[in-house]
Every structure is written in structure tokens, then in C-alpha cells.
Amino acid sequence: MEFSCPVRVLVVWTLLLRFCNPWGVFAVDLEAINDFGLDIKAAGQAWFQLSQESFPDARSLEYLDHSVELGNPHGQHLRALMYAVGFQASTPNIAKSILHDHFSIAAGHPQAAMTFGYRALYGHGAPQSCVNALNYYRHAATLVVETLADDYTFLQSVPYHPRLPELSKEDEVNDFNKLIFLASASLKSKNGAYVFRIAKLLLQQPEPHYTLVNQLLLKAAAWGHVKANAYLGIMFAKGWGVTLNATKAREYFIKAPEDGDALYGLGLLFKYGRDIVQDHHAALEYFYAASKLGHVDAVYEAATLMTSLHQAKRYFEAASNSGHAMATFRLAELVEQAPDDSSCSKAIEMYKRVAERMDHPLLRLAWSKYVARNYVDAYWLYRLVAEEGFEVAHTNAAWLLQLYVSQPSDTTRMMLLYRAAHQGSGYAQLELAHAHYSNSNFDLAIRAYSHLTSEPKFRSSKAYMHIAPAYFYLGYMHEMGYGVPCDRSKALDLYIQASAIERRFKWPIDVWKWKWWLQDLWAHWLALLCQLACQA
């Protein structure tokens, strides 16, 4: 990791103090820091960067306090989160948390604005107010959009924040060394399609090896894979591993006339006049063509050039439904202007989605702690981020609390589950239903299971992991008469729905059918024996 000049100065300063002061008495001399040519703002940021190297150990917290004292907004917000959850304290201190975040918001910190928006939306530690929540989430989303705004938005990555309960041993991990080996093997095969797939996977790495990717794409194009030309155009348009060259980019885009990425790239060149005469009409034609091939970025760019607001809104909505952050932001602005009672909540939902597209260091750190099997630290990091309203942080914190934290608090876990379920966590909703079932609150359990199977917000790519068990438990409750009249026919129907979603339930259902047949046979024999006994 390469440090900026302020960080390097503080690292040297810290090491000198440790060497000259073996007893660990450590103090910050601002005059000495300024002698090195650092201003207060740079020094605060440097202390914060140092604190993140080993957060949350004792030394990192000391560095964090130094950054807070110097008014660093990142440090202020992190300290606010720590006060909110009672990190290293017996009880949370919401008042101090709010005070620190006020300073962070004033300095333009998006996560602090999200925290205030989340509290105002649900009334957590603040008066519930849709208007206030809207203002805070709009502010956070605006800050995020400013970082996303880019003339060349090729291959815009979505932050990867996995839900821990949904991970499986079969989940693929793109190990860099394995990809390098596959890249080497693919070159021997001279299979353009295979080489191109490896190049795409390498581009998805946190720190792509652009030179190697460029070599693979050149080989793939030479071996007849047309789409590789589109990606070579992207490389030159972005300056990834090569000198930025719009003319070269255009040449490669033209070599892939029926590729969505290539058509989109040509549209951008015409829209912004990069080494070509600016022509919005030509750009729109290229964006239309790419849109027909399902290119989401092209759908958004086409909307920005349309003169009809009604048509533009349709295109923004289509791109937003496919996860495009900029389109979601523009759509939220339009929805906010609509004279509709529900416009406030709709706009908040959209602004929140945009704000959560930011790169989040704490979420990345929490994931790395989990991978390193440091589960307690991972739990606390997810707890901190949960205060900002991230559903995935609530879900993961609840899961870790149950499995890995000694003396877990049921109250805290239920709070996390309720908040996660409210935002569409299928895992959390299933756990809440199980909790009601375990406590024999069968009416509440049936409502919770039914809610999980019927609400669209729980429909995710991993929904089967939660919805199938919900159907199974509903079937069992109808079979046994828990909270509802016994109804074997209804139970069987629910069991079949469970097996249709997830095949692992098929075998137990077959066993259930045999069980019912044996029960009926036994009941018939008993009735027959009783009848014979009465006749005798």
C-alpha cells in the first residue's frame, strides 16, 4: 500500500517516538507536525489513514482520536458510529454520536448523511420525518453521484458486499493466481472466446492487471473473437494500461459493429466530441442501437439526450430497474417533483440505493475480517455500518452475533433482524418467523412466514434459501394444526411449493406421504379391531 506524503511523515514521526520512548507514552506535537509542512486538515486525514491500518485495535483507536481532535470528517463519523452502538462502552451514547455526525455532514461526509437519513426515516434515535430523511438521503446520493459522474462509464463495478448467511462452499472466488494460470493455459489453446472470458475476469479484480488484460484481448481479437475489439476500444477510451487515445478507441469500436459495448462507446465519442465532431443526434442513434442489445449504460445516456421528458423518464426507469445508479438518481429527482403523497418515500428508496453504491471501506474491512476468521471484529464492524442503514450490515451482524459472539444479546439480535427484515432481508424475516414458532406464537409465526412468501421485496437471487423453508414450515403447521385447523391437503400443497423452489425438500415430502399412508393404514386397522371387538 502506497502512502501519501502526510501519511509517510506521520509514520516516520510515530516510529521515532516509539523508538525514543519505549514505555509507550505517546503524544501529538502539532507544532512539530507543522514543522514538516503539514496543515491541520492533511494531518487529520493522515491520522485517520493510519487508524485504518489495524482498526479496531488499541493503537488504531489512538490514531482515530487524533484525527477526531483535528476535525477529520471520516474520523468524526467513525467515532459517531462507535458511540451509537456502544463500542468498547457499556451503553450507547446517541447524543455524542449525533454531535460528531453533525460535524461530519457539515464537511460533506456521505455516510454521516446516510446515518441521519436512516434515523429520520425509521425514528431510530431521532424524530421520524420523511422530509428530513429525504433531505439527508438526497444529500448523500448527490455526493456519491459526483464521484460516479464520468464521461466514460464503461464497466462500472458494483461494490461486492455479500450476505454471510447466503454464502455457500460452492460460491466461486476469483483467485488472482488461478486466473493468471488460466490466462497462461488459454493462450496455448488459441481459443479467442476462452481468452476473452479470462480477460473479463481479470478486469473484475480489485486491482486489474491492465497490461496482461490488454495482451489477452489483442490475442482474442486476433483469433477471431469480435467482442474483444469492443473491450480494446474501452481500454483506449479509459487509458487502462495504454495511452488514452480516442481515435484508437473508435477504430476498435468500429471493428465490432454489432456489439453493445462498441455501439455505446461510439455514442460517447460523439456525445462528448472526443477526437471527433460533437454530434448529439449521431450519439443518440448509437445509444438507441446499444439499448436494443440490452446495454444499460446506453439506456441511461439515451435518456439524457431525449427532448421528451415523458420518454426520458421511461428510459431512466428502465435503466434504474437494472441497477444503474445515475439513472436511479435522475429518476428520484423526477419522482420527487411529482405531486403524490407517496413521492417522498419513493424518492427516499431511490436515493438510498444510489447512496449505497459508494465504495465502503468499513464493509470491505468487515468482509476481510470474516475471511480471516476474526469473527468478533467482523461483527462489530458490521454493527457500525448497520447504523448507516445498510441492510447487508444488519443481516451479517445478526448472523455473526448468533454464531460467533460469546454471550450474545437476544435483544440486540432481534433488533438487528427486525431492521434487516424491514429492508427486505429474507434471512432476517425467516429468523423472526422461526423465533415466533419457537416461542409457540403460532399466529405471529404464520403471518411472518406468509409475509416472506408473498412480499416482492424478499425476492432476491438467493431467495430460494429462505422462501422454501417458509413454505415448508407453513405446511408443517397446517399438518399439525399449529395456529390453524388441521388441513392435510393444504399442508401437501405448501410442501409441494417448497420442493418446487428447492429440490432438497422433495425427499422429506415423499417420506411425509408414506408417513400419512402408514398413519391412515394404522387408523383403519384400529377402527377395524375396535369394530371386531364390539361385535365379539
Features:
mainly alpha; 0% strand; Serine Threonine Protein Phosphatase 5, Tetratricopeptide repeat; single chain; 536 residues
Q: How would you characterize the overall build of this protein?
A:
One of its GO terms (biological process) is ERAD pathway. Keywords: Signal. This protein is an all-alpha fold and 536 residues long. It has 4 domains: 5-108, no CATH class; 164-355, Serine Threonine Protein Phosphatase 5, Tetratricopeptide repeat, CATH 1.25.40; 375-421, no CATH class; 424-536, Serine Threonine Protein Phosphatase 5, Tetratricopeptide repeat, CATH 1.25.40. Helices cover 70% and strands 0% of the residues. It has 28 helices and no strands. The protein has helices at 5-20, 30-35, 40-52, 58-69, 73-85, 94-106, 110-122, 130-148, 176-189, 192-203, 210-222, 227-238, 246-254, 260-272, 280-292, 296-305, 309-321, 325-337, 343-355, 361-371, 375-386, 391-404, 410-422, 426-438, 442-454, 464-480, 488-501, 506-535. It is globular and about 105 Å long. The model is unreliable at 13-33 and 169-174 (pLDDT under 50).
